[in-house]
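Dear all,

This email documents one entry for the complex benchmark we are building for the journal club exercise. For each entry we list the sequence lines for every component of the assembly. Then comes the predicted three-dimensional structure of the complex as a token string, followed by one or two observations. Please use this as the template for your own entries, and keep the labels exactly as they appear.
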Amino acid sequence: MSNLLVAENVTKKFGGFTALNNVSLEIPEGSIFGLLGPNGAGKTTFIRIINQITYPDQGNVILNGETLQPKHISQIGYLPEERGLYKSMKVGEQALYLAQLKGLSKVEAKKRLKYWFERLEIGDWWNKKVQELSKGMAQKIQFVVTVLHEPKLLIFDEPFSGFDPINANLIKDEILLLKEKGATVIFSTHRMESVEELCDHIALINKSNKILDGKLIDIKRAFRTNTFEVGIETPNKMMLRNELSDRFVTSEAFFKTVGDELKMKIQLEQGTSPTSLINYLNGKGVITHFVEEIPSANDIFIQAVKNNN
Amino acid sequence: MNHLLLVIKREYINKVRNKSFIVMTFLSPLIFVGLAALVAYLSQINSDSTKTIAVLDESGYFEELFLSDGNLSYHVLENTTLADAQNLVKGGNTSGLLYIPSVSLKDLSNSIEFFSEESPSFNMIEGLTDKIEKKIFNLNLQYNNVDATKIEDSRVDVDIVLENFSGEKTSKLGNVLKLVFGGVAGYLLMMFIIIYGNMIMRSVIEEKTNRIIEIIISSVKPIQLMMGKIIGTSLAGITQFLMWLIVGGVLLGLVSVIFNVDLVEARMQQPQMLLENAAQQENIDVIAQSLISELFHLPLGTLIASFVVYFIGGYLLYSSLYAAIGAAVDNETDTQQFMLPIIMPLMLGIYVGFFTVMEDPHGTVSTIFSFIPFTSPIVMLMRIPFGVPIWQIILSILTLYLTFSLTVWFAAKIYRVGILMYGKKASYKEIFKWIKYS
């Protein structure tokens, strides 16, 4: 799979403050790429560089094999975190204006807007003024304007904020559909459950440095600790608990079951196969639960940032 | 379509469609004409009301002088003492008592007194003084056996005709016209800068507070957005100005028609004054004719061309600063600290224009200020009607437009950084840092 966007050693300083330090990223074509990091890490600066709102002090950004240049604006759709609309303008003419700025002709923009407005069931808003809309309604308009010119690269910064669960789901499905149609998506958010759901690649930026990137699955594999969550039915839970604690590194486990079994997390030494654990436990009672603990995006985020600090 | 054109179009349409803009466009001339009509009406009422003053002339020089004239009528007292007269006036409804004691003609000049409850109006006292002075002057002439008619005949009005070496003539009236042109042009420019500069600033702040700026700026270059805003708002401003001229002109026409009717009625009631008025009318016609001929004597082409050039240059220079201020702050209340450096040179331009240029259009001060780009649009516009060497005009225009491109560059830098700064309180120090960023 080729890369749609490549950032090479991008550095950006604001006076004495370094917002991005030598950051290199590769964003594969057709992926949903999670751009993660704590507040103030430099994500927005990076996104603004891609949008040519600011320019890097050092380094290159390459889109589709070409160094980033003004003509690429029409190939990028950007939904910023701080977003709004002109309050006194009507929805329709505002959407037309923004679409024309992205290079669409008036006729074409009108046609596509009609399609999208009907699709998101907001057709009757055309002549409404923005100040009459709720926040969620305004978000829908902004989403439409972002995707209207069918850009190759879509950048969403906290796209779900301000949406109720129904509309958030609607937008999520639209994002997945756009990906199906071949768009590449950069997705920046603090909501790790949506990262889990949507992203296939992620990069983690902390304190202006990239500390982690790659396929989400690969990263999860790397962050595995060979820990298993087990449930065993045994007549004497106390005895087994003590026995296990002596033999392995253990901790308490919490999961829902219908029985009254002993629940524990057991961490094996690196390289030890779970088969030996299963064999061992089999002799102690009935195994009702045996799951490898896979780190969530949330765990990875917290752990990586902690280690880095 | 070109991005700049799109931005201009949006700014223009949005401004022109704005309710308060429409209201102001039609209301301002209405208020202006209304006020003018009110003032005219009030002063008419004021001059219509007649006052009576009592006169006690013990000297006997002024018989026949105190017949009622205009809106002042006289109640001439005879055979009474000053004390009695004072008592009479105090209780009655006359506005005062003019007392001329019985002294020699020589001592008369500083022994006449006026008694009243409230201090009398300046105009009335001026009128009385004038009347009495003329009379004493004539009496003095008679006393010295001088023929008054000969004195009148010897009076002349001198009008020095000004002519430059290429043969263009101007008169005093022409000079006044030049001052009026310069004054109006300078004042218009200042008003335009203040009104529409503020409008640009507000429109920049609006984009920041609406949080739409980042969406816009990902498709339009900041400098395009800024120039689009400036040009769009200016076009809206020009539209408003034209509307004001048209609406104001029509209204003024209507009002003056109504007033003319009034005047005719007034004449019918006072047939005596008809003759005087006719003479005045003739006089006005003569003045109007010479005014028009003077107007055509002015280098109109040069004046209009330089007005356009300086107007555009000066306006763009200041409005780019306004845009930069808008970008630097989060809300309108924060703009105060940055307003002074903008208003100061404007005011300076107007003051230098009105005081120095009037006194000496080619003096050192006027010349220097007509080169400084922040004052040159106003000061040079005022100087040009008096004839300025072409090299001075070229130099001044060059400096103006060079500074304009510098301020635009400088404003664009502040703009580019500023529009994406939320919640940061802008200080001069902070802004200086921004300029270094980008």
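Observations: Residues 3-221 of chain A form a domain with the Rossmann fold fold (CATH 3.40.50.300). Residues 165-180 of chain A form the longest helix (16 residues).
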